[in-house]
Design a protein that fits this description.
about 160 residues; alpha/beta; Helix Hairpins; Chitinase A, domain 3; two-stranded parallel sheet; 3 helices; elongated
Length: about 160
């Protein structure tokens, strides 16, 4: 059994849809590409065939990744809480020591990704240190080049 991944209902639905699409339409499309490339002749020197097989490998890797995530998913409501503390699903604004502009991050699984904000894993050293922190707290965590301190500037759902 893989690692439990906490996902919002929206992310879970999106991953289910992606898995369904890749295992149906995706596999049919790639099979057609491989068949078309095979018709071009000698496979050892056929760039189209090699590209299609590489695409198939990447797609199958993603299918396996999605299957593992979905099999081990724990669906959590990210709207719970509201207690003013950093928790899964919140967007936290952090001010690194020495910086003048805060950085916004969504605390959650990489599968929760959005275009407007960077995702911070709750399992990362910074994520672990931030869970439970409140606005105004200074949080220190172990980074590769030594300890770093960040200030929690804002927390939003």
């Amino acid at each position: 059994m893989g690692k439990i991944q906490q996902l919002s209902p929206e992310a879970h639905k999106r991953l289910l849809e992606e898995h369904e699409d890749l295992t149906t339409r995706g596999r049919i499309d790639i099979a057609k590409k491989i068949e078309t490339a095979r018709e071009l002749g000698d496979l050892s020197e056929n760039g189209d065939y090699q590209a299609a097989k590489e695409e198939q490998g990447k797609m199958e890797t993603r299918i396996a990744q999605l299957a593992s995530i979905l099999e081990n998913a724990e669906i959590v409501s990210l709207d719970e809480g509201g207690d003013g503390k950093v928790s899964l699903g919140v967007i936290v604004s952090l001010l690194y020591q020495g910086d003048s502009e805060p950085e916004k991050m969504l605390v959650g699984s990489i599968e929760e990704q959005r275009e407007d904000v960077e995702v911070l894993s709750p399992d990362s050293p910074l994520g672990e240190a931030l869970i439970g922190a409140s606005v105004g707290d200074d949080v220190t965590f172990e980074a590769p080049n030594g300890d770093l301190t960040v200030k929690v500037v804002a927390i939003e759902k």
